[in-house]
Amino acid sequence: MHGKNTLRIMFLGGVGEIGKNMMALEYGRDIIIIDCGATFPYGDDMPGIDLVVPDITYLVQNKDRIRGMLITHGHEDHIGAIPYVIGDINCPIYGSRLALALIQNKLKEFPKLKAKLITVKPRDIVNLGAFSVEFINVCHSIAGSFAMAIKCPAGMMVHTGDFKIDYTPINNDYTDLERFAELGKQGVMLLTSESTNVEREGHSMSERKVGATLDELFAKYSDDRIFVATFASNVYRLQQLLDLAEKYHRKVAFTGRSMVNVTETAYKIGEIKFNRDNFIDIDRLNNFPDKEILVISTGSQGEPMSALTRMANDDFQKIKLGEHDCIIISASPIPGNEKMVNNVINRLYEHNCHIIYNDLADVHASGHAYREELKLIHNLVKPKFFMPVHGEFRHQKLHKDLAMSMGEQERNIVLPQIGDVIEVSRNGIKKAGTIPAGQRYVDGLGYGDPESIVLRDRKQLSEDGVAVVVLGLNSVTGEITSGPDIISRGLIYSNEAEDLIKEAKQTIVDSINSQPEKQTDFSIVKNDVKRVLGNFLYRKIKRRPMILTIVIEN
């Protein structure tokens, strides 16, 4: 058991990486969870994987001690894992109206899951066991975003969540700097602050500047159809686009399931306002002049099946692009997506469209604080201890350096990694061990271990192909009665395959016939064929394909 008046913080995601944000706070017998995010698969080693979510082994083992889950905002990297873990820990979830509405939409796909969702507003305080949690309004790229002030007998912790400081925000959705300053005067033991944009000097651009740029583009391309691809969750951007559609007398069509769902959800709870008579179905675009059309689309990240990508590939039956179309990509590529986004842009240029993206005009504003904004929070909160979170290791390290440049002591700063247990009290902060942590993979509706044989098989198939051997054997004598036949895929070019397959068949026959006693245990025969063929193929072509052996009893 940890010491009295000590707060323990356990990181299940969101440190040493972008996305999959989740951490747990523990004091005495009480545990609270902050966020429950997912990330998308990255690299080529996750074939067939839809989502990556945190490993919650520790929370499952201690589920009776969990008092609640607190959501900073409704982005996927903060709520995306909830459907896959809430059934195992079964705790109430607290968040803004929009965040909970988006969670509710997700849970509809899992009808057996039941979750208690409790709406909170800025400056609301929730008591959960030894913890008292205050929700503080912050500006981000989605409405209903919170920082949190968390009090327990050990002291006060402030967690910023994702935020920026925008002095001219849409819907007057300001970051509550006044409250941060008041908390700083009370005495903050620990600050955990996001680090995503710590590499960027100065201040982030206001969302209103994006609106002004979009207004200029609507005026410039007044005779063309206008397509805008952006993040579905950025309701401030959607609101500005809908306002511009009304200003320039354009009908609005949406493409992309997530775009439609978020817009409908935000409208129902009053986060977006628009005239429904201005909406048209995507099938009706040809019923209106080009100058009266605005299409708001998914696909700003170059996702292969998104609407924008299919348009670029001329694979969207309802829309054919041409020289009288203006395409605005109102987003920046998420790290790792640059190649996909560039491919889409190149394909769009082939259609002779007018293409506008962030390198050419201010059509996107980040939702994350730049260095001067991070400094301001440090100055207001005045923490005794600090942990940079929500970033890869380099972001955390640079945020540590920034804090030290402002006078914070190196001994009072910890860079946590996934699985770390950090203990903090008024007397100090330290790493105090680890818990089971890492990642789990979501495949369809399945949820499993990253080392599962299914994933290993997929990787083998994708890298080395497959060979299927069909062989007939006499069940009494063990002699070959038919075959062997070998069917291969992804193994070797067809013009080289005939001789190789012929030699492989003879190798299998020679191996079976060379046995001093004919084998009638077919499981042993299957293993022998797999071994002999595997060694032969590696010797010949330096590949180790998946080998499946089918023995037919005669």
Question: How is the secondary structure organized here?
Answer:
Layout: E1 7-13, E2 22-27, E3 30-34, E4 51-54, H1 57-61, E5 66-70, H2 76-79, H3 82-89, E6 93-95, H4 97-107, E7 117-119, E8 125-128, E9 131-138, E10 145-152, E11 155-159, H5 177-186, E12 190-194, H6 207-220, E13 225-229, H7 235-247, E14 251-255, H8 257-268, E15 293-297, H9 307-312, E16 325-329, H10 338-349, E17 354-356, H11 371-381, E18 385-389, H12 393-405, E19 420-425, E20 428-434, E21 439-443, E22 446-448, H13 453-464, E23 466-473, E24 480-489, H14 494-513, H15 522-541, E25 546-553
Parallel strand pairs: 3-5, 5-6, 6-7, 11-12, 12-18, 13-15, 13-16, 14-15, 16-17, 23-25
Antiparallel strand pairs: 1-2, 1-19, 2-3, 4-21, 8-9, 9-10, 10-11, 19-20, 21-22, 23-24
The CATH topology of the largest domain, please? Metallo-beta-lactamase, Chain A
**What structural class do the secondary elements suggest?**
alpha/beta
Poorly predicted regions are none
Strand order of the largest sheet: 7-6-5-3-2-1-19-20
**Based on DSSP secondary structure assignment, what is the total number of beta strands?**
25
Description of the structure:
The structure is a single chain. The chain is of the alpha/beta class. It folds into three domains: 279 residues, Ribonuclease Z/Hydroxyacylglutathione hydrolase-like (Metallo-beta-lactamase, Chain A); 150 residues, Rossmann fold (3-Layer(aba) Sandwich); 89 residues, Ubiquitin-like (UB roll), CATH 3.10.20.580. 31% of the residues lie in helices and 25% in strands. The protein has 15 helices and 25 strands. The chain has an eight-stranded mixed sheet. It has a six-stranded mixed sheet with strand order 8-9-10-11-12-18. The longest helix is centred in the last third of the chain and has 20 residues.
